[in-house]
């Protein structure tokens, strides 16, 4: 079980209150009409699957129902930091 | 978000949408989601002593307010309507007599008022609140259970993953969390008293769950 700090509720809660919503920082192309099929396909379907640091989007589903970002090590399961949407991570892979 | 709050007076007036009084009058009998459990007669027939006391605070007005916590005009308007300021700190609540406000998320609050006053308060909000906000009467969707007694903490610990230690959960704190296989908004309203705001559709399930969870301490129904 992960013990997750919700930056909106400002306290630690159990993992079962949260859902992971996949990779964070996926920017929608500003002009989808101008995308090639490959660019659009990569935006829609292709995701990173790193061994090590990963930036993820989480939602406090049973609590405040707000989304936030989390930097997590997929190998050790250690949570490096949580930060609100719109902020940039301070812990990044080399 | 703040740019949405810059509205002309005409736009602001247009937000005063038509509201319908969901309770036409006291002559029509409302039924709580636990009507079928008949808590009144259980309170008369059942045991009078036990470790857990259960009371339904039924047919209250539940208003879900969403507005901008950084907009001082909106905060002032809420205080004019309810006589108490919105609790801006996460996981806190505020109270003014029969009115109570629970912090739900950084831009959302749950306001509980006496059922027959709901429409008046909704109308007052429409008159007072400036800018971009949302107020929804969700009274029909939930009900409130009040749990108290010497063993109330033990029953809650069986039901929810939240840390309920008095140090981590002082009087007045509010959390929305999981409760059994459903969810609840738990507020500590006294030293040994907690209020659960639960979904209407899960009311029967939680009622059965609480009977089972409190059997070993003795459950006293209060009406």
Description:
The complex is a heterodimer of chains A (94) and B (223). Chain A has 94 residues and is mainly beta. Chain A has a single domain, classed as Folate-binding superfamily (Folate-binding fold, 2-Layer Sandwich), CATH 3.30.2270.10. Chain A is 10% helix and 35% strand. Chain A has one helix and six strands; from the N terminus they run βββαβββ. Chain A has one helix spanning 37-45; strands at 3-6, 11-14, 19-23, 53-59, 67-73, 79-84. In chain A, the strands form two sheets. A four-stranded antiparallel β-sheet of chain A has the order 3-4-5-6, with no helix packed on it. In chain A, strands 1-2 form a two-stranded antiparallel ribbon. In chain A, β5 (67-73) and β6 (79-84) form a beta hairpin. The longest helix of chain A is centred in the middle third of the chain and has 9 residues, at 37-45. Chain A is globular, with a radius of gyration of 15 Å. Chain B is α+β, with helices and mostly antiparallel strands and 223 residues long. Chain B has two domains: 36-58 and 142-222, Gyrase A, domain 2 (2-Layer Sandwich), CATH 3.30.1360.120; 60-139, 2-Layer Sandwich (Alpha-Beta Plaits). Chain B is 24% helix and 30% strand. Chain B has helices at residues 9-14, 39-45, 72-82, 118-128, 152-159, 203-213; strands at residues 52-57, 61-66, 93-96, 99-105, 108-113, 134-137, 142-148, 174-179, 182-190, 193-199, 219-222. Chain B has a six-stranded mixed β-sheet. The termini of chain B are far apart.
């Amino acid at each position: 079980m992960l013990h997750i700090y919700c930056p909106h509720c400002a306290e630690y809660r159990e993992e079962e209150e949260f859902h992971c919503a996949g990779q964070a920082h996926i920017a929608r192309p500003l002009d989808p009409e101008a995308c090639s099929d490959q660019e659009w396909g990569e935006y829609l379907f292709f995701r990173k699957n790193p061994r090590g640091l990963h930036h993820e989007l989480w939602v406090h589903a049973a609590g405040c129902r707000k989304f936030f970002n989390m930097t997590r090590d997929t190998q050790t399961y250690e949570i490096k930091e949580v930060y609100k949407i719109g902020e940039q991570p301070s812990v990044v892979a080399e | 978000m703040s740019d949405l709050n810059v509205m002309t007076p005409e736009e602001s007036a247009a937000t005063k949408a038509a509201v319908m009084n969901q309770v036409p009058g006291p002559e029509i009998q409302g039924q709580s989601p636990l009507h079928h459990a008949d808590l009144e007669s259980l309170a008369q027939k059942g045991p009078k002593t036990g470790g857990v006391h259960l009371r339904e605070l039924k047919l209250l007005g539940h208003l879900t307010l969403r507005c901008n916590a950084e907009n001082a005009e909106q905060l002032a308007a809420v205080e004019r309507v309810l006589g108490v300021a919105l609790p801006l700190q996460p996981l806190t609540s505020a109270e003014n007599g029969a009115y109570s406000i629970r912090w739900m998320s950084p831009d959302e609050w749950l306001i509980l008022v006496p059922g027959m006053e709901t429409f008046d308060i909704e109308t007052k909000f429409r008159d007072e609140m400036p800018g971009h906000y949302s107020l929804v009467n969700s009274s029909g969707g939930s009900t409130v259970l009040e749990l108290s007694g010497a063993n109330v903490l033990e029953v809650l610990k069986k039901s929810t993953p939240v840390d309920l230690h008095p140090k981590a959960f002082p009087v007045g704190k509010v959390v929305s969390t999981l409760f059994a296989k459903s969810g609840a908004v738990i507020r500590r309203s006294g030293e040994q008293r907690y209020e659960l705001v639960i979904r209407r559709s899960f009311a029967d399930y939680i009622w059965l769950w609480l009977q089972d969870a409190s059997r070993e301490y003795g459950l006293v129904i209060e009406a």
